[in-house]
Write a structure and sequence with these properties.
By secondary structure, the chain is mostly beta strands. The protein is built from 2 helices and 12 strands. Helix content is 12%, strand content 50%.
Length: 167
């Protein structure tokens, strides 16, 4: 038993997390609905909290170099402390509000090259390696944005790619 607890502290045989979205497509101002599915590992796990966050890829520039990084821009705790017994299955439903300033990733049914969005789920586990899950999210423009994009298209403009700059 002591060996299992020690291995669990290194992340071996610990709980697993899988987030399932009802629909990975959304728009700014709406929500992402789904559930976080937890399965207990070999030993009891004391989970400090379950957190959902929206993350995206950004361009980072500095001193004549440019590289990509990941930035979290919205975070929500979906569960406080809980105990997860060995092999126990637990589903935590959620409704995550999508901020109005969320970047658009898809236009006219196509992914904008350079734009990536994900929903990260994190389990903060006491005295063990934290677990996480990452799910793709597609953010579509609001109807008012679509009308503006349509006007640009009628003028001959085409959208090829986009990126976010850290700032």
């Amino acid at each position: 038993m002591v060996f299992k607890k020690m291995m669990s502290a290194f992340g071996v045989g610990g709980p697993s997390v899988d987030t399932v979205l009802t629909n990975p497509n959304t728009r700014p101002g709406l929500s992402l609905d789904g559930q976080v599915n937890l399965v207990g590992g070999e030993t009891q796990a004391n989970i400090e909290q379950v957190v959902l966050s929206l993350v995206t890829r950004v361009e980072i520039e500095g001193h004549d170099t440019e590289y990509a990084g990941t930035v979290e821009f919205h975070r929500m705790v979906v569960s406080g402390p809980l105990e997860l017994a060995p092999k126990q299955q637990l589903a935590i439903p959620f409704q995550l509000p999508v901020p109005w300033e969320t970047p658009i990733t898809d236009v006219y049914g196509q992914r904008l090259r350079g734009m990536t969005m994900g929903l990260r789920t994190e389990l903060a586990i006491a005295r063990a390696v934290d677990k996480s899950d990452l799910d793709h999210v597609a953010v579509h423009p609001l109807p008012v944005h679509e009308r503006i994009l349509d006007a640009f298209q009628r003028l001959g403009f085409r959208f090829k790619n986009a990126d976010l700059e850290r700032g």
